[in-house]
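TL;DR need structure tokens for one chain.
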Amino acid sequence: MGFVVSSSLSMANKSNMDTSFSVLTREKFEDILETYSIPRSFNPVLPGNNEPIYPFKPCKISLYTRVFVYCNYRIPFTTFLIQVLSFHGVHISQMNPFGLAKVNHFEISCCGLGAIPDLNVFRAFYKLTHSGIGILLSLKDWKDSFFIDNLCVPTTMHWQPKKSTLPKALSDNFVYDEGLFKGLVKNANRRTYLGDGCY
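>> reply
TL;DR here they are.
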């Protein structure tokens, strides 16, 4: 199962993770570790051909290379990303790359305004939803994944059960920073590819 961030956000709804296997090659694996400065201290491991993405190996989690290549995240993950995932009770390994990219874009947009990324403002823009498998399949090489020590995420971050319940819609009296919200709307910008793997 996965999640997406739409205007509503999204989880990648892939219910058969126990039959999903990485197609990452040794050469690409080493290149990813080097290019994105993934700490060797977290003991990244290339999965075997018969090792499913989930359930995780003991003391490990599975990460898609798209978390780094497409979504522009690095280890250690940002405080705001962890805050968003923790609030929704979703594991980073379940997040659809498009959803993670929106979290990253929101965070950078706030920083561009000289503001601290705010969870409530984020929720005013986005809602986390269960997504269909088609969303993941529309992104090239999304099955490129590897195992890494679970110390790179909080111990409170758990795998979301298949029939999990996500936070309800915002109430009419929901409070958020309207100034930041309006600033982001006024200075809205698209996520743009800049070349050399940068967005």
